[in-house]
Every structure is written in structure tokens, then in C-alpha cells.
Amino acid sequence: MKQTILLAIAWLGCLTATHAQATSNTENIFLVTVDGLRWQEVFKGADSLFVDDTGMVKDMGSLLDEFWDPDPQKRREMLLPFFWSTIKQDGQIYGNRAYGNRVDISNTMLFSYPGYNEILCGFADDERINSNSKTDNPNITLLEYLNQMPAYQGKVLAFGSWDVFPFIVNAARSGIPVNAGFSKAEGPDLTDQETMINRLQDEIRGPWRGVRLDPFTHHYAMEAIKKSAPKIVFIGYGEPDDWAHGNRYDQYIRSAHQFDAYLKELWDYIQSTPQYRDKTTMIITTDHGRGTQKSSWIGHGSAIPEAKEIWMAAIGPDTPAMGEMRQEGLWHAAMLARTIFRLLGMEYPDEKAGAVITGMVR
Question: Which residues pair with 309 in a beta bridge?
Fold first, then answer.
């Protein structure tokens, strides 16, 4: 019965899209997250307190040539060159609190599962989503709503470095393929690259039990995108948060830099492929922030208020090229779900979701 109601809602959304799509050029969505990457690094580059600290950097001075400059504007370009060239030029970047441009998560847990639920569903659910345990999400994500629509059914894919993503997306109920944790590419038509990635994932042991290294997540996603041409893609990179928990600022910085390179590869492929070029919006954000002092930056959660502070960015045919947003205001991760549906020319079916980020939609 529940699935019948869900399908009816999705059909109504699809009918709404028929009328609204004329004003929208976005036909595809790439929603990309990176776990626990602070707004401070995004907008100011490597942190002067941490960049050469003996307890946080294994080899003293190892970050300075690549990532340090006294000017924070230059530092951020060194750390995230794609972000501060292409996205700044052609998209929008929110969350520089120096200008009063604030982005927060609205859940009070301030850790990963609640953060991803908020991003993917459009609202916080502190009563039910209050741990990182592997329990199926009772809420319906934007991915699941879309996968129930004829226009998108079977064209929604999800990838993640963290092995909890199949539960966040509720793969069992939604029917969305989720390659996450230490999952492998499966099926009778594996490419040579997928076969090699499967082998390497078996042979290269990362430092964490529940999170694989981001290169596996990225290349599984790229191969599947090239092979299956999905319309809706979610990718959740994970390394920065886990390196931060281990107090490895050097690895945190290098993972952030690599994440930026992955964004460039994704966007270059989008812009070079007829199905995606000028028809795709890419939205980028994080699930939570973290502390600002040496004693607190390794953590997040309700005991660290700064962990509510995040950032987000968007680039695509319906997002005006306004660069770094400097107007004062407060935005929330919970606003992304309804905004994504508006970009696709539809209204989000869950009334609990946050409002549209109007400036992100032309």
C-alpha cells in the first residue's frame, strides 16, 4: 500500500514537471558530498594553526610548498583549484561566514547519518535518525522519489566510501543500486576497468574498517556513469573526515585536494558528453563541519557547536554564475532536496522539506 501511494505521488510530480520543465534546462543531477570538510579550508585554504603542527603533520614542512601562502585567497586556490576557478566563474559557492553568508545543518546530532538524511530527504529527523548505525532509513530520499518516476526509474545510481550509505538510501526499499563501503562492481558486462578496480580493492587495504579509500568510490562511479548514462547520480566521498578523526591534517588536506580533482574530472566528463553537456547541474556539499581548535578539530557532534557550520556549491545551466556568494543570510542543507526538484522542473513531494534556494535556480 505504501509503495502504491509513493508511486502515485511520484506520478503527480512527473505531471507537474511536464508543465514546469519548459523553464528548466536541467535534465540530470549530480549530487556530490565530501564527509566532514570544513568551510574554513574551503574558503581560506590550509589552516595556519594546523598546517605545520608536529602532532598533526607526519613530516614537518611537507604541506608548505603545495598548500601554504600567507594570502588565504591564494591558499584556497592552491587547495581547491577547480573549485576556485570553474565553479567560482560559472557557478555559486555558499558559506563564507566572513561575509555573513552562513550555511548550517539543521539537525542537532552534527554527525554523518543525520547529515546525509537531511541532505537527501530535505529535513532533519533527530527523533529517529540519531546514530550512525546500519539501520534502514524510514524516510524517503529525493533519490527514491525520483526512482519511482517513469522518467527516472532505473536511471538513479548512488556511490559512497562509507558502508552505511546503502542504509541511508534504503537500497532494500528504494531499489536504487548503491556501490558503497567495500562493494564491488557486479554484473555480466563488467568493463576491463571495473574488473581491475575490483581486484585492486581486494589488494589495497585502507586504514579503516567501514570506509574505503575515495579513489575506489570515484572510479567505480566514473565507470558506471560512462557505461549506464544515469540521469541522477549521488556520490559520497569520505576520506577527509576519517583522516581528521585520526588527527592527520596532512592527509586531510591531500584528500581535500584530490576531491577537488575528482570534481574536475566529473565536470569535464559532463561537459564533454552530449547527454549531459548544458543539461546537468552538479551540487556539492558536506554532511557536517568540525571543531576549530587543535583539541576539537578531530571531532564533531552536539558537543562541538561549530560542527553545524557547512558550505555548498552549485554549477549548471539553471544556476546563475554569481561565484562566491557574499550577501548575508542563512541557508540549510535541508533546502537542497526541494531545490534539486525545482531545478528538474518539479515540486518536492514532502512538505517537511526546506524551502527552495531561490538564488540557485534561474
Answer: 104
Q: What is the number of structural domains in the chain?
A: 1
- Domain with 250, as residue range(s), is 2-360
Q: What share of the chain is helix, strand, coil (3-state, %, to 5)?
A: 40, 15, 45
Instruction: Decide: 36 and 244 in contact? Cβ < 8 Å.
Output: yes
The amino acid that residue 34 corresponds to is: V
Q: What are phi and psi of 308, to 5 degrees?
A: -80, -15
Sequence-separated (6 or more) residues with CB below 8 Å from residue 334: 105, 106, 118, 119, 122, 123, 124, 353, 354
Give bridge partners of residue 280 from the DSSP assignment: 28
pTM (global) more than 0.85: yes
User: Residues 253-294: pLDDT tens digits?
Assistant: 999 999 999 999 999 999 999 999 999 999 999 999 999 999
Burial of 135 (0-12, 13-18, 19+ CB in 10 A): middle
Output the pLDDT for position 86: 98
Give the cell for residue 68.
Answer: 601554504
Cα(169)–Cα(164) distance, integer angstroms: 9
CA atoms of 307 and 291, how far apart (whole Å): 6
Please give the pLDDT value at position 99: 98
CA dist 147 and 145 (Å) reads 6
Question: What is the tens place of the pLDDT at every residue in 137-182?
Answer: 999 999 999 999 999 999 999 999 999 999 999 999 999 999 999 9
CATH number of the domain to which 66 belongs? 3.40.720.10
Q: What is the pLDDT of residue 12?
A: 52
Say whether pLDDT at 19 is over 90: no
> DSSP alpha helices (H): ranges in the chain?
2-20, 39-44, 64-67, 72-79, 88-90, 112-121, 142-147, 165-168, 171-174, 192-203, 214-228, 239-245, 249-272, 336-343
pLDDT at 134: 98
Residue 224 pLDDT more than 50? yes
CB-CB contact of 82 with 261 (8 Å): yes
- Which residues sit opposite 34 in a β-bridge? 237
